[in-house]
Amino acid sequence: MAQMTRREFMLGEGSGTGGGPQNLHIGVGPAHPAMHGIIRIASELDGETIVKADVEIGYLHRAFEKDCEQGGWNNAIPYTDRLNYVSPLINNFGYASAVEKLLGVDVTERCKYIRVIMSEISRICDHLTCVGASAMELGAFTVFLYMIKAREFLWELVEDVTGARLTISYGRVGGVKADLPDGFAEKTLHAFKQTREVLDEVHRLLTGNRIFMDRMVGVGVLSREETIAYAITGPLLRAAGVPYDVRRAQPYYVYDRLEFEIPTQKDGDNYSRYLVRMAEMEQSMRIAEQALASIPSGPINVDFEGRPIDPAAYVDRGKQGKTEGLLLVPITLSPNLQGQQRDAARRVNVADKRVVLPPKENAYGSIEGLMNHFMLIMEGYGIRPPAGEAYFPVEGANGELGFYVVSDGSDRPYRVRCRPPCLPPLAALHRMIVGEMVADLIPTFGSVNMIGGELDR
Amino acid sequence: MGVGGFFTSKLDEAIGWARKFSIFQYPFVTACCGMEYMATACSHYDIDRFGAGLPRFSPRQADVLFVVGTISHKMAPVLKRIYDQMTEPKWVVAFGVCTCTGGFYDNYATVQGIDTIIPVDIYIPGCPPRPESVIDGLMKLQDKIAAQAQRY
Amino acid sequence: MAILDELRRRFGDAIVETDDHRGDLTAVVARAALLSVLAHCRDEAALAFDVLMDLTAVDYSKFPGREDGPRFEVVYHLYSIARNHRLRLKVRVDQDDARVPTAVGLWPIANWLEREVWDMFGIRFEGHPDPRRLLLYEEFVGHPLRKDYPINRRQPLVGPAS
Fold it and tell me: In terms of CB atoms within 10 Å, which of A202, A224, A283, A333 comes out highest?
């Protein structure tokens, strides 16, 4: 009998650490309230300390990449909504930009500003959900309710612009679905004011809170070198001290014209990640306000007769052959088509008829418009990027969200690959929780912000 | 049945009323619908006023299984096990079109409707359903619960 | 372009093709030299590719013009934080010989990314410490992102197949 420690003697034969029969195997998840979405962390515990952890993902695998190959290039947009479903606009625009890069088209100025504003609103929603949910799991249920309330204000804005709260399918290859509605700037500024009040309250509740800090400071630490080696980007990398942000490193849309800071911390623990996310929300609001202030309005068409006409009357006129100047006449379109009138469409969509649908006035009012619409919609036709491949990175809420698209020259994508920003932190999760206690698993997992749709695709 | 029938039916109504206003749901949240579930459960839309404000995260303590979000084939055995672990009386709500029919995920990974695995009481379609739809579905569930006859 | 020139100069014939399309630098590498090229990209100070952004694969069996060539292409997206430049490296493998040396020793994230490529395409990574499926369950037969796997062939664990 070798020298036994007192602990081994008391617990019986077998050593207490490193895989002896005394370790307890528990499976956290996949059906677990703190596993946002579903994931399984099969852990081996020695007392309360986690000795080994095996993270198992794939419980929400929905075949995104295979589904994108089945339809046209714009058909993949609804699938991209459901990747990171808390910030769906960023996914839409990332995918659309990758295809636009392949096509070699550059979207209009106004469209770039719109994409920036909506991306930032989406990013704030994502951080609100992340911080709220992880605070709830630590017991701060009020913080969760406050943040979801703030998220509702922002979702009302998103609904005004896109028509839906969550799965918005707003981006299109070559532009966006519709222009911003009237009064959007005032509503956004008001919503941001309310959001700032909520963030203030949350700061007062959490940031100096003894319990919160005890549970989050020094927990879930991942060193800077390991964070980079695991290809982790986004708030986790910035909390470890590396100021890498795709918006600054490879600016896209109009980020190079806007002023914003990249908040960083140096400890790489859960508390730093929380601080980085809270600071990023403020920066996102700053970006969106600057963009709203400097968004170009673009050319407004001069009316032909000065007053809009009813769509049925418009079609009748076309059928009667009274087509002179018909393409200049404004029509009162249905409210469902708000923001998609001819002048608005011209402001936000690229002027390439092989890529974007013609506005409804043209589709119904002229044979060229009708044929254009047909050539983009019918199966076998559609957008045809030249054969090749492109990778476009955008700054998602969790880090670098990249879309790698391969085209074979046909109207369907040959391969769409989404580089999920929350996969690397999950791959490194076992490094973050081994050695910690089992109760520390929950805030660590919460601060990683795993989104199942993006992780498992 | 006379007097006996009157009392048992009044007792049924009372039990139904108590049950429908004390729903302890198990939110089996997987995907995007979870965001709308959170929105419905929180202050703006508030299902606490229906008595459904306290989720129980153990199937043994819950009576309504809200299946929220896409169920993949990898997850399906887990769902079946959770459903089997719940005790009677139990109801299942298929929240979101992925749970009703598989949604637009007609592929190798997705279960085409959870009613292929477990019996479902209420279907709430939508991708994701608006909170108003969810509350409508919840109220229909309450009617179903209240109308459920007891076996003595 | 300087990156591609440097790689060509250093590795000669092992760099089969290079391309600079829409700002993306791409190099196709022979499989035998793959690990040394990757190690050079990571360790050389002027390149300093410390981040393996993505590791994926593409099945070219239905690509017009490439149906008879090597079926799979394993794609590595590299990024350097210090130098802020990107590189795409590709390796072509045949269907019958779908093996590639693992990059786990260079970047630990390759562990999961290679597991996903194995899961979806069936490409083996030699030397991988944990060759399991990542996204699908072990009972699943086949590799779904291959072009010959029909999208709605379900293999349920419980419940009916359709």
Answer: A202
